[in-house]
Design a protein that fits this description.
It is a single chain. By secondary structure, this protein is α/β, with parallel strands linked by helices. It has helices at about 20-30, 55-65, 80-85, 95-100, 105-120, 120-130, 140-145, 155-165, 180-190, and strands at about 1-5, 10, 45, 50-55, 70. Strands 1-5-3-4-2 form a five-stranded mixed sheet. Helix 1 (about 20-30) crosses helix 2, helix 4 (about 95-100) crosses helix 5 (about 105-120) and helix 8 (about 155-165) packs across helix 9 (about 180-190).
Amino acid sequence: MLTTKNYKLFKFINGNRAVSKKKVDNIVKSYKSGIDLFPFCPVLVNEDNYVIDGQHRFEAAKELGLQIYYMVVPDFTLSQIAEMNSNTDKWSINDFLNCYVEIGNKDYVILKDFKEKYKTSYSVGASMLEYGTANGGGGNVMERFKNGRFMVKHLAKAIEVMDRCEDYKNLTNQTNTRIFIRSIQTLLACSHYK
């Protein structure tokens, strides 16, 4: 793998996918929150330094003033680039979780254990742990989760609620659903419920 700060060395191939400012901004935001994957995801270029794969990583590293990590892949054509891009799968929620667990992010380790113990969905588990409620954060919790900014702030409260939900396991198989958890949270807020 090679590195350089000579950004002018690189060129973009006409016909490749356009660079999305939103994607670049998300990579920059992830880097600023402590996730530096640039050394592990090099930009791929052909022998003439045309970017084959990694336009967004290149633009983000350039914007941040960082070294460009790159590898030369000879004899790559535009049709091969298109084929490679069409074969690329979107990351699943599980891929994101495992990525952050692998790099040692303790909040994601806690979420993984919580999800496995209580069999919740990712969004319910993340909402419970970050906002203290099954419906907290709306869509933002999953965006924060994917960007590596998820934080556990209400572990004790989440465990208390989920343990109360578990008390009803012999009556229903819905104890890990958002609506059931919200019902238990409502009951716990009542002074008459014990």
